[in-house]
Specification:
Elements: H1 3-15, H2 17-27, E1 32-38, E2 45-55, E3 58-62, H3 70-78, E4 81-85, E5 88-98, H4 100-107, H5 111-117, E6 123-128
Antiparallel strand pairs: 1-2, 1-4, 2-3, 3-6, 4-5, 5-6
Length: 133
């Protein structure tokens, strides 16, 4: 996918589907969580809806669009973010690579089956701060 097409696709998602999924995530119902992060250049606070898997150390994120998306670049630059899941806020104090098998298993059935069929292999562990575990 060319960079221009990818940018246009992400703009479309942000201005349509993300608005709906943000509302669902904020309600605490459904599979969505919000990642609250601060823009690297703007300093503005953003909330991005994602489907995350809860694990003992925090959350697993599958990087559907790779590492070149703003939410991911922002949290890596800051080294932290806040996850809003099920109506509760969770402070994330570090982001670590997560091996594909562990990442897929974290999502459970049937999502794990879909991730395997789609050959998804890029996962990150969003580690919950020690005071919240």
């Amino acid at each position: 996918m060319t960079r221009r097409v990818k940018r246009q696709f992400l703009w479309l998602l942000n201005n349509t589907l993300n608005r709906l999924t943000t509302r669902l995530a904020r309600s605490g119902r459904g599979p969505f969580a919000l990642v609250r992060h601060v823009g690297r250049k703007s300093g503005k606070t953003y909330e991005t809806p994602l489907i995350l898997a809860r694990v003992p150390d925090g959350f697993v994120a599958e990087l559907t669009y790779g590492t070149d998306v703003n939410w991911y670049r922002n949290i890596v630059a800051a080294g932290e973010c806040v996850i809003i899941s099920g109506g509760a806020e969770h402070r994330i104090d570090r982001i670590e690579p997560c091996d594909p098998d562990t990442g897929v298993r974290a999502y459970g059935y049937p999502a794990a089956l879909v991730l395997r069929l789609l050959r998804r292999h890029e996962f990150r562990l969003l580690h919950t701060a020690a005071t919240q575990q």
